[in-house]
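Re: beginner question about structure tokens

> Can someone show what the tokenized structure looks like for a real chain? I only ever see the sequence side.

Sure, here's an example I had lying around. Input first:
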Amino acid sequence: MKQHQRGKTFFGTLILVAFVGLFVFAGIKLAPAYLEYMKVARVLEDLKSQAAGGVAGGPQAIRSALAKRFDIEMVNSIGPRDVEITREGDVFNVRAAYSREEKFVANVSFLLHFDKTVAVPAT
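And the corresponding structure tokens:
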């Protein structure tokens, strides 16, 4: 009676480890960009909640508040001048839209697009 081999081979395991390792490495490279985006989103949400009664001073006051918060949170990918502020009726739409390129391996890189908009009440 012939015996059949069971289980994985060394090369099969090596390929599986390399494949999983590639995704883990990509996650490690992309995590700081996503963590910084979460800081930007948190700053915008905090701006919205703090200005629940309305913003006096208009876009300049919003940019000043964003500059302080971006400095505290150590946000480097976007500055207060890069934030788009438009007024529509009785609200200011504050939009932080930016792209970030992260190097991966050799000449391969990831291009990440981030976009967050909040409506801040105006006085």
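Each token stands for a local structural state, so reading them left to right follows the chain. The beta strands are 84-88, 91-105, 108-121.
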